[in-house]
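Risk register update: the risk of archive-format incompatibility is retired. Evidence:
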Amino acid sequence: MSESAPKRILFIDDEPALFDALTRVMRPMHGWEVQVESSPAAAMERLKTESFDVVVADRRMPLLDGVSILSQVMQRSAESMRVLSDDLEPDPFPRKAPANQQFLAKATEVEGLKETITRISRMRDRMHDDNMRALIGNIDGLPAMPAICQELNRLLAHEEYSMREVAGVVEKDPALCAKILQVVNSPYFGVGRKLTQVHDAVAYLGTSMVKNLVTSLTLWRTLEGVRPSAIGQLQRVHARCQRVGGLARKVMGKDRAQGEEAFVSGLLHEIGVTLLIAYLPERYDRISAEMLKTGLSFSEVERSLYTVDHAELGAHLLDAWKLPFQILEAVAFHHSAPNLRHDKLKPADAVYIAQSVLDGRDRGLEIDECVDDAYIAQLGCEQQVQQWAAWLKEV
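Archived output:
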């Protein structure tokens, strides 16, 4: 059997000193072909004819910056992973930002880039392997991205857009407007004043959060319409996910950007279960019946019976709907986030903790019985556990 073609990564940066570090870190990676360009114009010419699995662009370049480059990459190659690099940390309150990309603080994270890209690549390979393709083949028509999401993605891919234009797209769907206003005015966000206009909500949330929230809300609505006979069951899963999202946002603490990401991840973490209920009810019923016989959890039974679980299935759909990797990771690992071995709290950990303690509460367990002490210590969150217990009473 011939060896598979290497994955390709393109670095675009006008700082020559960075190339040495990138070369040192990335060249030894087996299965990767590393390319570098110091000229944004030359890079864009290459992108017209060449495809790359990953494009990393510096945010601060003359004439054509990283944001503009990655916006064009998204239009030309939606499958490419896009990484924006900068000497600074990302804006914790982003009002305008290119959609569906990752951020690399190159002053502190170049050494970690190899591990990050490897992890993303491994998960994406898993979400599109033969087992996943076989499962998807059993589903009659996964939901396509609705027109309003596509229109919003096209707008956010442009170099210039206004928040009023973003609000204008959202306002085309009155039911969606009502849901967004309901979410932003909920206790989960603590705005401090009631927002009644979509434009104000969009301005408060920022475009990245609006995009993720619009996608998640329309996805739930779409799936609830697939199998009307199971609407009550689907809505119970959705309500549970809202509670997990709300608690996950609190668990993330004061980091607003990651807190909002944790909220959306929690809102979507069981989207794979919804797919089973809507499209594969026999599989769902078999797992449920086995749970009653064995006393095992849904995920434990599912893993004993099948090669692909609902978490991976949900992440596969969200990848197709172009949600950011951090959300895909949180959904894919919401039962197994300790395996990610993060050394500080991330949205995936917040969702895992939130759903674990909520499940534990339903079984009459104390919070310290729900999450492993070593895992909490690894994240440096020992002092937060009692606060989580207090929040648990509010959701």
